[in-house]
Amino acid sequence: MLSDVSSGSFVKPSALSLNTYLDKWLEVVKPRLSERTHADYTYLLKRYVRPTLGTRKLSDLTATDIQVLYAKMSDASLSPRIVRYVHTVLSAALKKAVKWSLLRSNPAALAELPKQTRKEMKAFSPEEATRFLEAAKEDRHGVLLAFALVTGMRPEEYFGLQWKDVEWKQGTVTVRRALIWRTKGGGWYFSETKTSRSRRTIPLPASMLAQLKDHKRHQAEERIKLGPRISIS
Fold it and tell me: Which entry of 11, 40, 99, 196 is 20 to 30 Å from 213 by CA?
């Protein structure tokens, strides 16, 4: 301790529990995060970190404690992806504690992470895709199903699309937002895409553009029949 004091690296032990610190950290980072990301961080910490380590003093937290947590998560058959995501959030929180002089070093930085295994992607064969598209023609939402297959978009992405996202002359569609379910309190809301890579422009084949034009025309006809108070998107 005297050595740390003389070198200027001494950090006075904090009486804060990890739970109390995480509450403060989540409050501080909230303005910089999207609502969806903040909700994800809150859930991961509540689900996996707080039950095991939350009552521990922040200053007493060790790399061994965190390593044991990750081992328990792996033993519970949680995927390496989940463990790594929890680590990313917890490590970011503890890194900030170091910056705020509440910890001398980040104990999560010393933890070993499980090896991430990538599963082989499953996709339709050309024959399966053809059968799917033929079956979709008989469904009321057939255009949506065909669009999902052609573009490869995630559901939250194509549910967040608007007609202005389609460039008819260029034959493209641009992902700008997503339709998200609010885990706290419920309800749907539109949000910007989670990462910059998710915001992208996708080319559309002529056959898909033709289906979209027909669908848009049918929507306009339905609007007229339903009256001005009804909104269809």
Answer: 196
Beta-carbon count within 10 A of 21 CB: 23
Write phi, then psi, for 153 (nearest 5 degrees): -70, 155
Question: Is the CB of residue 159 less than 8 Å from the CB of residue 179?
Answer: yes
Residue bearing tokens 């002089």: 101
Please state which CATH number belongs to domain 126-226: 1.10.443.10
- pLDDT tens digits, one per residue of 200-211: 999 999 999 999
pTM for the complete prediction?
0.67
Query: According to the CATH classification, is domain 8-110 in 1.10.150.130?
Result: yes
Beta strands of the chain (E only): which ranges? 166-167, 172-174, 177-181, 188-192, 201-203
Per the prediction, the chain carries an average pLDDT of 89
| Collapsed DSSP state (helix, strand, coil) of residue 37 | helix
104 burial via Cβ count (<10 Å: 0-12, 13-18, 19+): middle
Numbered ranges of CATH 1.10.150.130 in the chain: 8-110
d(CA 67, CA 87): 10
